[in-house]
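Exercise: predict the fold of this chain.
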Amino acid sequence: MSASSLARVTAEVVACRRCPRLVAWREEVARVKRAAHAAEEYWGRPVPGFGDPSARVAVVGLAPAAHGGNRTGRIFTGDRSGDWLFAALWRAGFANQPDSRARDDGLELLACYVTAAVRCAPPANRPSSEERDSCLPYLAREFELLSELRTVVCLGGFAWAAVLRALEGLGESLPRPRPRFGHGAEARVGRLALLGCYHPSQQNTFTGRLTQEMLDDVFARCAVAERRQV
């Protein structure tokens, strides 16, 4: 698959203004800023996916954080959730470094692609179902273009539902009954194995609902899920 095809999707995502509520919020956050980042220029636009065009594993999150991806322009970069995610990807061999602070910090994903169900930072981290559906075509196109993709890690129930809807929109037949999200849940849809994982938000990591060991186990299972698809 040509990286230029993903680049075209990236350009369309960045220019998107489909959801008035999200446009207003992301731009307001970029103007007002957080005191700790007052001297920085915020991205303030939709945040595209990124990673290896030959990825065999995709990670799908909820949406950019207001002062994370909405600030840096790269999903999970510069926020606490990303601290957990990129460290786990590094430990599993899917990233060349354990952290990410800025778009140009040298992070490279190896056989991995990171994206989100919704591309704009939503108020209170709660996008609507309509906003999710507006973003679904981007997610579906990424799945189409990532021809080597075999496993999708869904961070949270919202991402799980979005991935199922995107694959259904591509004409894939979903298992019956419809697979339900849970940490460690697994489902097969066409060529893809879906793995459920609690989102590495502070709400989950501070309370111990998600531990580093639990996150590491999910990425260790990616190789097992791939073998089952062969």
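Check your answer against the key: The chain has eight helices and six strands.
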